[in-house]
Inverse folding.
């Protein structure tokens, strides 16, 4: 009888240790780390980072990797979408990255070693938590810089009397989507922004006339596939689809404004997805310059957006650290 | 006659009490807590981190660009390798560096068809009295290079870099 | 007399029941500590990084295939197979059918991995 009482009083002490789910946190953190660093997410084509607010439910899993063949190489567009806390709420992170029935608290941080990427999502970490750290590299979008080095190539031949000048940037998808190039170095306009920057535009102006002219008027920027013009909301400025800036000022795609020194067009993948393109299409971006009196610029020609390093600069992969804490 | 039944009752009571106490004692002593090291979780975290760092050092930043790991091995630059490796694996998102240490050697197949090891980075002063170390490996493809001296020689070959990683 | 014996037996029975109940509780607690242990050990045991690394190395070798002489190719293959066996405790065997089709076999005693892949 006494022994029974003694044992009965020891039982609560045994049950107190049962709440030891602290060991589970490291496993969940590891799994989340793998999903973020090694998985491109699902759906992968069209990619999950292009889903808008109305299709958010179609995202099953958010992963940051470029593809499933390139673990630990993260895509910058996926990173920007993932850390966008105005688009995702904590319940989304729990159901699309962390998984599990218990509502875990989380803290996911990503920092590039040169501090240019420094993102955080989640709450502050408490004393004890499950943890994993991954070392990754970030792939950033390519840029086509057309500076004065191209002047001889892209000037009209003498004797050309046309009144409008058109400069074309050509994206040949059959050349770009080249499977023999490692996905970590591939240019894919369907998932990454296309950046065209014309600097030193003053070199492309017609210097021979007097008084010396300062600028040329960019009439519009249009998109063509072969001889077909693609429909597009050219009149409205839409930062989700593109940004066009002339000398640092933003415009829509029908600016009809003078340009002195540089033009910068960034075409986001959301815009490229509006065009009817497949792996063999050609997308032409036409810059049309037209002035009221006589042509102020002599620019012409086709600039190929391809893997030639003089045509397109692909930035180096950026090393970064990813940390996941779960509690 | 009345004593026997009383003794039986008492003995049964004592036996029951002994059984319960013995069981309770056995149970309380078997549910010994595992130390964090027994769960191998820190080992898993370190191994994943070390593999990541070696993989990233083996990935050129530009297509056809320089491969850090191959350069370090060709030059036999142990110090450079150690600094670069530790820079990657001690980096945290908060900026406060971690305290990991490493040592490395390279396994190659020598002239006489024997598998040999060459020490690239020796262990430092934290080698004794450390926590358990984790071994991570990475294959490296070396091209034909006449200036590469001992011990790998100049032929094109595949070598294995082994890094021991521990927390001190 | 008879009822006294039964009382004693009740006590022993209750004691035995309590003991069994305690054993059951202890089993549950023991298992909960093992959850974390087997997860981490499962991760450590599966050679994910080893296999990925081996594939990457074999693809690197086939990228250079055309630039190597016959004896260099043999040497390279021998390097990978011998060092895998000695340092990675794994039996590795690989060959290519047509120029782009590569078959890889990996066995480290616990995990077996076979793959046929087209590498451009």
């Amino acid at each position: 009888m006494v022994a029974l009482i003694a044992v009965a009083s020891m039982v609560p002490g045994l049950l107190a240790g049962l709440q030891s789910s602290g060991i589970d946190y490291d496993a969940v953190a590891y799994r989340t780390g793998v999903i973020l660093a090694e998985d491109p997410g699902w759906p992968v084509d069209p990619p999950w980072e292009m889903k808008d607010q109305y299709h958010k439910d179609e995202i099953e899993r958010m992963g940051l990797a470029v593809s499933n063949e390139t673990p630990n190489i993260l895509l910058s567009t996926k990173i920007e979408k993932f850390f966008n806390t105005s688009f995702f709420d904590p319940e989304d992170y729990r159901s699309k990255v962390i998984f599990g029935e218990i509502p875990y608290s989380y803290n996911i941080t990503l920092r590039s070693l040169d501090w240019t990427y420094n993102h955080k999502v989640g709450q502050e970490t408490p004393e004890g938590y499950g943890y994993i750290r991954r070392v990754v590299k970030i792939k950033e979008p390519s840029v086509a810089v057309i500076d004065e080095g191209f002047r001889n190539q892209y000037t009209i031949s003498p004797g050309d009397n046309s009144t409008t000048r058109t400069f074309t940037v050509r994206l040949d998808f059959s050349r770009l989507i080249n499977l023999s190039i490692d996905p970590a170095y591939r240019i894919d306009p369907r998932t990454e922004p296309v950046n065209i920057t014309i600097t030193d535009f003053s070199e492309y102006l017609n210097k021979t006339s007097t008084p010396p002219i300062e600028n040329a008027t960019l009439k519009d920027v249009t998109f063509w596939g072969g001889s077909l013009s693609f429909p597009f909301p050219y009149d409205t400025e839409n930062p989700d689809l593109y940004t066009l800036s002339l000398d640092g000022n933003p415009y829509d795609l029908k600016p009809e404004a003078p340009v002195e020194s540089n033009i910068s067009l960034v075409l986001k993948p959301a815009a490229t997805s509006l065009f009817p393109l497949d792996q063999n299409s050609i997308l032409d971006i036409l810059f049309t310059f037209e002035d009221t009196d006589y042509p102020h610029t002599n620019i012409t020609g086709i600039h190929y957006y391809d893997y030639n390093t003089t045509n397109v600069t692909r930035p180096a992969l950026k090393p970064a650290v990813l940390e996941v804490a779960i509690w | 006659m009345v004593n026997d039944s009383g003794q039986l009752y008492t003995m049964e009571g004592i036996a029951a009490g002994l059984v319960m106490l013995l069981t309770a004692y056995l149970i309380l002593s078997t549910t010994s807590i595992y130390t964090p090291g027994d769960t191998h979780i820190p080992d898993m975290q370190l191994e994943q981190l070390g593999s990541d760092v070696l993989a990233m050092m083996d990935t050129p930043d530009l297509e056809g660009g320089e491969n850090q790991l191959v350069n370090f091995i060709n030059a036999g630059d142990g110090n450079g390798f150690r600094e670069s490796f530790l820079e990657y694996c001690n980096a945290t998102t908060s900026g406060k560096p971690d305290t990991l240490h490493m040592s490395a050697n390279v396994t190659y197949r020598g002239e006489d068809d024997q598998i040999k090891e060459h020490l690239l980075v020796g262990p430092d002063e934290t080698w004794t009295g450390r926590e358990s170390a984790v071994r991570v490996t990475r294959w490296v493809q070396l091209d034909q290079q006449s200036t590469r001296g001992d011990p790998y020689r100049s032929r094109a070959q595949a070598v294995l870099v082994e890094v021991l990683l521990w927390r001190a | 007399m008879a009822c006294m014996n039964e009382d004693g037996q009740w006590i022993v029975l209750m004691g035995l029941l309590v003991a069994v109940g305690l054993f059951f509780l202890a089993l549950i607690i023991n298992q909960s500590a093992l959850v974390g242990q087997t997860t981490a050990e499962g991760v450590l045991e599966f050679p994910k990084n080893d296999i990925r690394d081996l594939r990457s190395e074999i693809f690197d070798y086939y990228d250079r295939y055309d630039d190597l002489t016959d004896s260099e190719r043999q040497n390279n293959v021998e390097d990978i197979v011998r060092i895998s066996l000695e340092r990675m405790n794994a039996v590795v065997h690989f060959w290519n059918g047509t120029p782009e089709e590569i078959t890889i076999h990996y066995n480290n005693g616990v995990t077996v991995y076979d793959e046929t892949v087209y590498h451009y």
Q: What stands out?
A: The two ends of chain B are 74 Å apart (CA to CA). The longest strand of chain B covers residues 157-167.
